[in-house]
TrEMBL record:
This is Histidinol-phosphate aminotransferase. The keyword Ligase does not apply. One of its GO terms (biological process) is L-histidine biosynthetic process. Pathway: Amino-acid biosynthesis; L-histidine biosynthesis; L-histidine from 5-phospho-alpha-D-ribose 1-diphosphate: step 7/9. Residues 28-353 form the Aminotransferase class I/classII large domain. Gene3D superfamilies: Aspartate Aminotransferase, domain 1, Type I PLP-dependent aspartate aminotransferase-like (Major domain).
């Protein structure tokens, strides 16, 4: 293998439902593990994808004309500022391959989204984690922006910031982000990963980062259709940046990285604002209800602006996870992020959340 490859730890996705059903002989497994939209895709997106099936013998539009035009209108930028990705992970990887490499460093907060380190190391760069905010702060385990700025050194080429962050759910306010962006030297690329922004925009003081693009040529905002838009299986995400940065990304991008079904479905999904509003509303109500119920079970949760909760289940988190799996509930252990006492639980439909809470209660009362 190339240098550094054996040092990588593969990204661990949530366990697939079919695997668990077969492994434990279960039926009716529910998955609250990967922060998908429990309402599914917009019916408009489904119809658009179905209509495009007959054209599968054609390559997709390699430049994503229709989708980029729609996204450019949505963000009030020029289409030349948009770069499409095979999911926003692809965008993050593309950024790493474009701006990182041996001798360069990628900086991110401890407990930030796991892909930043993987993308940096795959590109031959050094991952550097700055300490997170203290557990007793108002954003426990959240990004400490001052600590990030302090760690910027001569080799720092890219800083990744997730807002809101996964797995913690913590978020950043407009003022602190503005101060942070002003403090980052212009030669350093700042990536604002907004995979969960649709759930967070309602929070007061939450910024829409694309507003800063005009002043910050080194800013890249990444977004996805996998979460609120309900299209995780199609793999489509994008970045918004200066046209100059997009031009560099486009030189490294694989041709046809955004498939044809994804492009048409994303266009249709973007136009279905009612579907997003319904998903956001369901998440708001259910997240509050699940957090309250967890508190009632003696399981504290971190503040979350996403569609998931980071639940402190204690030293036996892996056993609790196993107990949930045996009863057909897939959640996400996050020991890999060095938060071994926590499980991340996506917010599902009310009956799915009820079932997860019921099993957590049972495990608490009757043991594992
Ligand atoms: N960023 C964050 C913070 C995420 O949580 C995820 C998904 N887990 C992604 C990016 C990537 O999602 P996708 O590739 O499906 O767009």
């Amino acid at each position: 293998a190339a240098p550094g490859v054996r040092g990588l730890q593969p990204y661990q996705p949530g366990k697939p439902m079919a695997e668990l059903e077969r492994e434990y002989g279960l039926r009716d497994v529910i998955k609250l593990a990967s922060n998908e939209n429990p309402l599914g895709p917009s019916p408009k997106a489904l119809a658009a994808a179905e209509a495009a099936l007959k054209d599968l013998h054609w390559y997709p539009d390699g430049n994503g004309f229709e989708l980029k035009t729609a996204l450019a209108a949505h963000h009030r930028v020029d289409p030349a500022c948009i770069t499409l990705g095979n999911g926003s992970n692809d965008c993050l990887d593309l950024i790493a391959r474009t701006f990182l490499g041996p001798g360069r460093e990628a900086l991110f907060a401890q407990h930030a989204f796991a892909i930043y380190a993987i993308a940096a190391m795959s590109a031959g760069a050094k991952p550097v984690a700055a300490p997170a905010l203290a557990i007793d702060s108002s954003m426990p385990y959240g990004h400490d922006l001052d600590a990030l700025v302090e760690r910027i050194g001569p080799n720092t080429a890219v800083v990744f910031v997730a807002n809101p962050n996964n797995p913690t759910g913590t978020w950043l306010q407009k003022d602190e982000l503005e101060r942070f962006l002003a403090a980052v030297p212009p030669k350093v690329i700042v990536v604002l990963d907004e995979a969960y922004i649709e759930y967070a925009l309602e929070a007061e003081g939450y910024p829409d980062a694309t507003q800063w693009l005009a002043q910050m040529p080194n800013l890249i905002v990444t977004r996805t259709f996998s979460k609120a838009y309900g299209l995780a299986g199609l793999r489509i995400g994008y970045s918004v940046s200066s046209a100059a940065v997009a031009d560099l990304l486009n030189r490294v991008r694989h041709p046809f990285n955004a498939n044809s079904l994804a492009q048409v479905a994303a266009c249709a999904a973007l136009g279905d604002e009612a579907h997003i509003a319904a998903a956001v509303e369901l998440n708001r109500e259910e997240k509050a209800r699940v957090a309250d119920a967890c508190a009632g079970l003696g399981l504290p949760t971190l503040p979350s602006a996403g569609n998931f909760l980071c639940v402190q289940v204690g030293a036996k988190a892996m056993e609790v996870n196993e107990g949930l799996l045996r009863r057909g509930v897939i959640v996400r252990p996050i020991g890999g992020y060095r938060m071994p006492e926590y499980l991340r639980i996506s917010i599902g439909l009310p009956h799915e959340n009820d079932r997860c809470l019921h099993v957590l209660r049972e495990l608490g009362e009757h043991g594992l």
